Amino acid sequence: MAPHEVGGKPKPKHSGRGKQDVRSLKRKRDGEDIEKLQQSIEALDPKAEIKEFSDLPLSHITAKGLDASRFTTLTDIQSKSLPFALKGRDILGAAKTGSGKTLAFLVPVLENLYRQKWTELDGLGALIISPTRELAIQIFEVLRKIGRYHTFSAGLVIGGRSLQEEKERLGKMDILVCTPGRMLQHMDQTVDFEVNNLQMLVLDEADRIMDMGFQSSVDAIVEHLPKQRQTMLFSATQTKKVSDLARLSLRDPEYVSVHEAAASATPTSLQQFYVLTPLAEKLDTLFSFIRSNIKAKIIVFLSSGKQVRFVYESFRHLQPGIPLLHLHGRQKQAARLDITSKFSASKNSCIFATDVVARGLDFPAVDWVIQLDCPEDADTYIHRVGRTARYERAGKAVLFLDPSEEEGMLKRLAHKKVPVQRTKPREKKQQSIKNQLQNMCFQDPELKYLGQKAFVSYTRSLHIQKDKEVFKLSEYDLEGYAASMGLPGAPKIKFQKGDDAKNVKNAPRALLSSDDESEAEAETETEKTKGKKGEVRTKYDRMFERRNQDVLSGHYSKLVADHTVGDSHADADEDNDFLSVKRVIPLDDEDIGDASTDLPASGPAAKVIPGIGKEAIVIDSKRREKLLKSKKKLLKLKDKGTKLVFDAEGNPHQMYELEDEEDFQKRGPAEIQRAKFLEEEAIRVQEADLDDRELAKSKKREKREKRKAREAADMAGSDEDVPGLVAANSRGQDDAMELLASLPLADEEEGRATKRPKKWFEDDSDDEKKRSKKKARVLEAPDEPETLEDLEALAAGLLD
C-alpha cells in the first residue's frame, strides 16, 4: 500500500504515534521543570534581598510575560512579599500608593496555579476582589499582559454588564477578578459556578473592602469558600484588626510593610500643601486655580456625586479653558470606562470625581490632586494623593481646609507621618464667580436644582462624619456657601433643627397651646414686615417668589427655609410646609373668589366642606386635606345613593333590609331558624330543578316537531314551488322533454335583456363594431395540430 502524500512528500506511516511520543516527552519535561521549580522555591530564603524578577524562581512562561511587559526590577513591596507568597504563606501587605502592589499578588497567582497544573476542569483556582469597577478592570488588564503565554482562562466580573453572559462563561474560568456585590450575586444565582476547589483569595485595597459598605458582602463570599486556601490582603493602609483576620480565616499571616519605618506614608517625590479657605470661597479658589493651570492634568476630589455633577456643569458653562470630565458611582459602566480612558489618554484635562477613583487607579502623568472637600480620615487622604507621584515620579497635592477643620485634620495627618505645608493663593490671580453662578442659576432652573441637591448632600456628608473633632457642623458658614453656589437662600436641612423638633412634630395638634401658635404667627408677621421695609429686594428675590416659574420651582420651595432654624415652633411649621398642598378647598361659595392658592392648607381652625355627602366633611389636619385631593379618596365620602326593589304591590324597598333583633328572637333560636331556612331552601331548589327539567324537555319536543314538519313540507310541496312543473312520475318522459324545450335559451335571454342607454358620444356603429369583435373572436382550429407551425398559429390567434 502506497504511503499518503501531503504537499508532494510521502507521509510517514506512524505519524500519530510520533505525535503521542512528542506530547509525552513535553509532559515529562514540564513535570521535571515543575519539580525543579518547587525545589527552588522550598530552598528560597524569604528574607533575602532580591532586586530583579530574574532572581526569583519563576516559570519560564511567567518570566517571558514579565519581560514582554517591561517588568524587570522589583519594587520594595514586591521584593519583600513575593518570596513569602511563592511559598504559599498568607500575606498582609501595606505599601505606599504607586509602589507596584498589583504584581505582588498576580505573580504568585499565576505561579501557584501553574505548579499545580491547573485546568478548567479543576474549577475556579484564584479569586481577586477589588472594591471598585475601575480598579478591577485595571487589575485584569495587568493580568492579561503578564499572563499572555499561560493557558489559563481569566474573567472579569463587575456590575454594569450582562449578567446572563457572565453566567454562561463563569464555570469555565480559572482566575476571576471581581467586585464584591456582583461576585456574591453569582454565588447565589449561578447554578454551575463552583468554588469548592479554590486555591487563592486576594483582596486588593483590603481596608476599603473591609469597611462597613462591603463587610456583609465579604462575609457572605468567605462563607462559600473553602478554609484551606492561601489568602493575601494588600492596601496602602492595612488593617490589623483581629476580627477582620478571623473572618477571613487567615492562617499565621506574614505582615509585610514598606512605609512604617519610613519618614512619610506618602512618596517622597510628592509635594503636599494645604490652603486655608473658608467654605464660601472654595469654588472661587478652585476656579482660579484651574484657570492658572490649563496646561496641567488635574484630579479634583469632592465628597458626593451630586457635588461632582453641579461643579462640572457650572464650570463647563464658565469655560475655564481646559477639557473637563466628571466621574462618580451613579454613572453607567460604559460611561465610566469611556471617561477613565479619555482622562488617561489626555495630556491636559481636569476631572471632578468622588472617592470611587481614590484607590488603586493608575492615571499616567497626573500633575495635581486637589481635595476640595476635606477627606473623612488620614487614610482617605493618603489614597487620594496617591493618584499622582506614582512610581517615583514628581507630583503635587493641595488640600482645601475650612478654618474649623485645620487643627483636627493636621493633627491626624501628622500622626500618619504625612508632611503638609501651608500655602496661600496669589491675590492677583484670584477671581470671584459668585455673580456668574447666580446669573446661571437664574437663567437655568435645572442648574439651580442641581446646586440645591449638591448643598444638601454636602451638608449631610458633614453631618454623618464620625470624627466630630474635625467636622463641626455648627461652625461652617453654610449660608455663605449656598450664596457662593449661586443660590438665593440655603436649602432646608432637617437634621439641623433643635433637639425638641422631633417631639414637637410628633405631638398631637390638640396639645399645642394656642398661645404658642399665636406667638409663632406673630413672629412670622414681624419677619414679613422687616422684609418689606428694612431689606433691599433684588430681582433674584422677586424671581424666586414667582409661582409656576419652571417645573423645578416646586422642589426649591420645599428646600428653602422660610423661618430661622433656631426657633422650634418655626421648625415645626417647616415640617408641616414640606408636604404643602397646592389646591385648598374653600369653605363655601362666598369664599371661592377670595381664596388664594398660596394659603397654607393647615391652620388653627378646622375646615368644613358641605354638599359632598350626607354629612359634612371636616378637615382638621393637613394630611387629611392632602388625601382629599385624590378623586379616589373623595369618591368614598360622596353619597352614592341606594338600590331599591319593588314588591308585587309596587312599593319600593331596600335591596337588603335588616330585621330588628327582637323580631328575630321571637321566631325562635338562631339554630332552629337556620335549620328551617336550609330545609325550605332545599325544597325550593328541588322544585326549581323539576321545573327546569320539564322546560328543557318541552323545548326539545317542540324543536323535534318543528324539524319533522319542515321535512314533510319539503317532501310534499316541493313540486308546487316552480309554476308549470309537474312530477315526472305522474306524467310521461315526453312532458318533461317538452318542459325543457319550453325553457328560454341563453341567447334569447340576452336578446330580451334591457339595453343600456347610449351616451352622448356613442352611436349605432359602435354596437356593430362590438358584435363584429365578438364574432371575430371565434376561431376555427384544425382538429389536431400536427406541426409546430400549426400550434404557433393557433396560439397567435388566441392572443389576438
What is shown here, in short?
The chain has 800 residues and is of the alpha/beta class. 46% of the residues lie in helices and 10% in strands.
Give the helix level as a range of percent: 40-55%
What would CATH call the homologous superfamily of the largest domain? P-loop containing nucleotide triphosphate hydrolases
Q: Enter the CATH topology name of the largest domain.
A: Rossmann fold
Q: Count the strands?
A: 20
Q: Give the count of structural domains.
A: 4
Rg, Å, rounded = 47 Å
Strand order in the largest sheet: 5-6-4-7-8-3-9
Based on secondary structure, the structural category is alpha/beta
What is the overall number of helices? 31
Low-confidence stretches: 1-11, 498-502, 509-533, 561-604, 720-733, 746-753
Please describe the topology of this protein.
Layout (H helix, E strand, L loop, with lengths): L4 E2 L2 E2 L4 H28 L17 H9 L7 H11 L4 E4 L6 H15 L10 E4 L3 H14 L7 E4 L5 H8 L4 E4 L1 H10 L10 E5 L1 H4 L2 H13 L5 E6 L6 H6 L6 E4 L12 E7 L5 H11 L4 E5 L3 H14 L5 E4 L5 H13 L3 E5 L14 E4 L6 H8 L9 E7 L4 H10 L5 E3 L10 H10 L1 H19 L14 H7 L16 H6 L7 H20 L5 H7 L7 H7 L8 H11 L28 E3 L7 E3 L2 H7 L2 H7 L6 E3 L5 E3 L6 H6 L3 H47 L16 H10 L3 H7 L11 H13 L11 H12 L1
Parallel strand pairs: 3-8, 3-9, 4-6, 4-7, 5-6, 7-8, 10-15, 10-16, 11-13, 11-14, 12-13, 14-15
Antiparallel strand pairs: 1-2, 17-18, 19-20
Helix pairs in contact: 3-4, 4-5, 7-9, 12-17, 16-17
Task: Give your account of this protein's structure.
This protein has four domains: 30-257, P-loop containing nucleotide triphosphate hydrolases (Rossmann fold); 270-463, P-loop containing nucleotide triphosphate hydrolases (Rossmann fold); 495-578; 586-657, no CATH class. The protein has 31 helices and 20 strands. By secondary structure, it is α/β, with parallel strands linked by helices. The chain has a seven-stranded parallel sheet with strand order 5-6-4-7-8-3-9, with helices on both faces. A seven-stranded parallel sheet has the order 12-13-11-14-15-10-16. A two-stranded antiparallel ribbon has the order 1-2. Helices cover 46% and strands 10% of the residues. 28% of the residues are buried. Residues 1-11, 498-502, 509-533, 561-604, 720-733 and 746-753 have low confidence and may be disordered. The longest helix is centred in the last third of the chain and has 47 residues, at 670-716. It is found in: Nucleus, Nucleolus. Its EC number is 3.6.4.13. This is ATP-dependent RNA helicase. Residues 1-33, 508-534, 688-789 are annotated as: Disordered. A motif (Q motif) lies at residues 51-79.
